[in-house]
Amino acid sequence: MGLTDTEIIQRIKKGEIDEFRLIVHKYTRPVVNFVRQRLKNTDDMEDIVQLSFVKFYKAINYFDTSRPILPYLLQIAKNELKMYYRSHKQTLQLDETILTEKEVSIDQTEDIHTLLNYLPHDQQKALNLLSDGYSYNEIAHKLGKPLNTIKTIIRRARLQLIKHKL
Amino acid sequence: MKNIEDKILKKVYQEETKHTALDIAFRIILIASFGTILILLLSVLYEIYLEQSTLDILQLFSEDKEVVFSQLGDTLKTLYVSTPLSILLLIISAGLVFFSIIYLTIKNFRRIVTKLKYIISFWLKS
To answer: Is A50 on the interface with B (CB under 8 A)?
Structure first.
């Protein structure tokens, strides 16, 4: 009769590390299937499966034997997949054209001023101060309002501008 | 699938070999260090006893049993009084650490030996 998972883990804890072979044999297929569904690259898939088992092995002394092994292994694989995606995240290069004051056409400046008139008075004031180079803290001090309120006012003003522009 | 299983086991054994080797090395270093410290402290204490001629009181043990038992308390008290407190504390601390490590090593000895047996047989096979 074969050993149960609990017996295998208890033996491994006692130093019979070769029993881990049984766990690997039993759970490799489900873990591979789980990772393969989410990752097509075979090499990376194998790496993640290997890492998942190694991490499980390292944590085996703290593993609660009353819990089933497979969900625990799949959770490790899931975390490894997250790490994999994070390290392979595609980045989009930003267009680094710097717009100087001269390049901003008069029409655009007029547009912005017209749009500002649509905003409530406190939002106009906050945005004007911001464009003059004041920090959020300084604006809060000047307008006599809490910092978080100023942040909210500026955020709402920006949203309004975007809405009117569209 | 067999291929992946073999790769996983190889990786696990690599990790375990590294871990066990470090564990053994760490225990050896700790035992050797604290053993040396303990010997040094005991030799310093011995020198101090020699200078103070404190060890002369141990001649008591060549006397009859009755005399030894009746004077044992006083002898130990004299030994304690003539021992510098700092050295005594250091010896007790070093001794406690040293014997704790020895105890833990003996307790885990079977597990370490079993692991080593499996590690060696795995690497010899592959």
So the answer is: yes
pTM of the model: 0.65
Mean pLDDT along residues A55-72: 91
What number is the ipTM of this complex?
0.74
Give the other-Cβ count within 10 Å of A52's Cβ: 27
Percent of chain B with pLDDT over 90: 65
Residues of B in contact with A10 (CB under 8 A): none
- Backbone φ and ψ of A96, nearest 5°: -95, 50
pLDDT of amino acid B62? 73
Provide the pLDDT confidence category of residue A92 given band limits of 50, 70 and 90: low
Given an 8 Å threshold on Cβ–Cβ distance, is A24 in contact with B119? no
Six-digit token pair at B27?
A: 């225990």
Question: Residue A21 is nearest to which of B4, B9, B121, comparing CB atoms?
Answer: B9
A28/B5 touch (CB, cutoff 8 Å), yes or no: yes
